[in-house]
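Reader question, answered in our methods column.
A reader sent in the components of a multi-part assembly and asked whether the whole thing could be modeled at once rather than chain by chain. We filled in our standard form and ran it. Here is what they sent:
COMPLEX SIZE: two components
ENTRIES:
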Amino acid sequence: MPPEPRTAIATVCLSGTLEDKLAAAAAAGFDGVELFENDLVVSPSSPAEIRRRCVGLGLSIDLYQPFRDFEAVPPERHTANLRRAARKFDVMAELGTDTVLVCSSVSPEAIDDDELAAEQLHALAELAATRGMRIAYEALAWGRHVSGYEHAWRIVRRAAHPALGVCLDSFHILSKGHDPAPIRAIPGEKIFFLQLADAPTLPMDVLPWSRHHRLFPGQGDFDLTAFTGHVLAAGYRGPLSLEVFNDVFRQADPRPAAVDALRSLLALKESLGVLELPAAPALTGHAFAEVVTDPGAGSVLAPLGFARTGVHRTKPVELWEQGDARVVVNEGGAAHGAVGAVALASTDPARSARRAEALLAPVLPRVRGPREADLASVEAPDGTQVFLCGDDWRDDFTPTGETAAGAGIFGIDHVALTQPFDHFEEAALFYRSVFGLTPSPVAEFAAPFGLVRSRSVAAGEVRLTLDAAVVRRGEWAPAVPEPQHVAFACTDALAAAAAMRAAGAPLLDIPGNYYADLDARLDLPPGRLDALQERSVLYDRDAHGEFLHFYTALAGARVFFEVVQRIGGYRGFGVANAPVRMAAHRARRHAAPPVKTPA
Amino acid sequence: MPPEPRTAIATVCLSGTLEDKLAAAAAAGFDGVELFENDLVVSPSSPAEIRRRCVGLGLSIDLYQPFRDFEAVPPERHTANLRRAARKFDVMAELGTDTVLVCSSVSPEAIDDDELAAEQLHALAELAATRGMRIAYEALAWGRHVSGYEHAWRIVRRAAHPALGVCLDSFHILSKGHDPAPIRAIPGEKIFFLQLADAPTLPMDVLPWSRHHRLFPGQGDFDLTAFTGHVLAAGYRGPLSLEVFNDVFRQADPRPAAVDALRSLLALKESLGVLELPAAPALTGHAFAEVVTDPGAGSVLAPLGFARTGVHRTKPVELWEQGDARVVVNEGGAAHGAVGAVALASTDPARSARRAEALLAPVLPRVRGPREADLASVEAPDGTQVFLCGDDWRDDFTPTGETAAGAGIFGIDHVALTQPFDHFEEAALFYRSVFGLTPSPVAEFAAPFGLVRSRSVAAGEVRLTLDAAVVRRGEWAPAVPEPQHVAFACTDALAAAAAMRAAGAPLLDIPGNYYADLDARLDLPPGRLDALQERSVLYDRDAHGEFLHFYTALAGARVFFEVVQRIGGYRGFGVANAPVRMAAHRARRHAAPPVKTPA
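And here is the structure of the entire assembly that came back:
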């Protein structure tokens, strides 16, 4: 296995003061940081104090950045630029760091002249060398004359100074669609620094894309494994360093953000074959889901055909079952009930837990009574507990002897985990890297109170959906956080809905307008449409099959149930119908939310 | 004066259920609505109930929208499309509305054949006519084959059916840079509908630009007066109707949003000369600013050279003065002090108030004691009171006889009103339309806890700055809402800072790192740099002049003071230095904000 690279993070990735950022990077376990100049400028700590703080935290300062608009300018500006650089070298000396990032000029003063650029960078490198420092020259994707890494490397080669090399930034290269393979031809010792950022594919100019929407590796659409592979193959031995400008991360708690950031690098290293982690065991399905409901609300499961089959030996929770659908109901829960835990059946729970721990997922301590199963329990970014179970978890429950009447439910289809605004990107990377689930592309839909982003993470019979608001909700938009739910799979949704309604299940009524629209759009056979409408069953279809589903009312402030039937190879989750459900839940709950006047 | 057009708003502009949206549109004073199909589909109210509700609210339903992917398809799809349309005509009949928006097809099935498009639209119009309905055909900017309004009009002309006309949408036309002048050549009776939206210039594809970033007229960069002028000149006599897709408005309280929306149309009508409003009187300066501070914190003004010159005759507030800088201090205020009121000197306060009222600004009732001045008082979107004053407002205060020692302050330079997240766009339109202030372009800067948008609204000596977070702040990022402040103008900031510090003013200390960076960037004369640093005075310059400024510590949880010196014609507000101030305030306030674990 090749040597494992060190890890670093640019302070600009994280929110807070410089002191907050350094503490968060160190706590997550980074080896070093890139010090972003503006973070230092606003800090009351002197460079020498920052140096001591980093030493105390076990962080190296691997790069000082950025130094802008240097190369290929008229002589008097060049003189001023060298003076400006000298002042920054003073700061770097106090910080105890030796490499500065010089990004290609965007100045209207810059001249399109590689020879002049090389000459002036040579002079800068010479000045740096006298201070024991070095220059990492980077092509910005929007640089005025130099905007590609091969161009930057040609200038560096022409300058031919040992204190001058290139800095490679995955965003600047991959956002422009430049081929990263020729990086292999750059001598590794001339690659002075490597900055990594992922990004979603967005139809916008590269500058605002870069400044607002970068993501940590594995969260976007770039192939960072291939990219980084080229850089390592070239012989680069410096740190893998993250430089991510993201509007959401910039205002989110830096401590979980730093953990998430480092996790992205660990997963990247694993994919590069420079870090060995316990492989993710196969997950064979949903062992159970735990819901936290209002007192008494667990009984909504009875008219759905479930039986209360067990009582936990030591905890105040009950097991409800129907077919392979198993729900642990916690009625003593918080005021705002929700899905408390997702329990996944693992072929090797202990190894699942070791992998989670290696990928910085908090493995939760668990009070284990005598005869209780050893469930591994991991905390997801949104606070949901994820249990990894073998076969023995049911021994924790004393059987009641009750058996389910049954209403056609045979298992858990998926669990819908609405996400806090700050954790949407983080969550997908978490489920992918820790458990090996595959994220779907992000869909967006208009709900009554604002836009919602939605994606699933799935593998085989394990399916989770992750939704979050596009804009963090304020005082007007209700249901923050939105309710979560467990969706059961059934064989015949129309029959199930009829049986459950007859048994008194509080199913959600769907407006006639929905069926009028369905009729206009899809021209279903008349009997079919009537059957759906009569039972308030919703309908969707895709290229692979059909989807019938219906919902219960809220069983507590934040949790409800869904029953779904997949016909053929339907791959979705009925997202197009989510706004109908949201409006119907709201209509049932209250006539109108509190309204604030403009004051 | 030409006839005043009616006003309408598409329900998709506003947040909430359909019932919420209709109530908000009616309360604001709109004449009608465009009913967005998805709002109806999720509503528990039947179309007939919605019709009755609209009648009760005094709203007409001017348009049903959208009907997609209709024209120029193979015959079997055309038959299905007519069936789909017939179902929608049923709904429209129940709603009692007669016009449907058909937008140009984006379907891969659509054929690039104007004759076929005209033929099929003719068939649709024929079907509509049998129901007493009509079709408004609109070119989407991203339509597959029809993406320009002139193209849509050619097809409509070719179809030659009295129940078929065009719908013009300012966004689809202006976003593509199409010339709107040829609209004048379209017969007014063939323009069946007019949709208005503004937008900021954004470097992105037109589809996401349209779906996320539209604004109400006057909030963006489009010339909607010229655009709408062409449409009215063509003879269009339908409503001016707003169709704005905006991520922020979609989740904001619909009631103030609807008021803001209607205000945008009133201002547009005024600019078109179809509505006469009381003209905005000239504002000659800041009469005073009222700040709400912690008890005792008002005395911070004393070491700044102010004297307590008056005590209000009936209210527990005091007047502090220095030169023409006047501050009313309200120490009995809320727990979270801030700028409570901005008082602007108007050449005609009563007319200022009449204009404000005509533009839907809440004119606040004011308890007026005997001998008290008749201040007009208007509430801004963020809750700030704006007083319009003549010369007599000082009669409300009993003079104390104290006189200011003075420290070089001669007036109020500007008042900085940080804005709630939902009201940033609204605020600029409010100050522009109601008071005739000119908004600056929006700048964006990176503050320690997230990105901030900033703009000013100004006219002569009246200057306000409006800042808001780019992403609504959550639990981590502190100071929500951010503190506000009053900035005083002085003749010599260095002398003032020295004198005030000597007098014990709690001035903010600026880190040495800031001056090291200033030195590197600007190469100021050495004596100058030392003088700035010694006194913690910040520095900026632009093409027109220089700016020296310094801050006090917070005088309460949410308010502080700034002292500024403009040299030459400097036009800005030192925004580049705002992050330094924010970090320094934070460093003074507490060592660290509460930190949440990932849970």
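What stands out: Chain A touches chain B through 86 residues (CB under 8 Å). The first strand of chain A starts at residue 7 and ends at 10.
Send us your own complexes using the same form.
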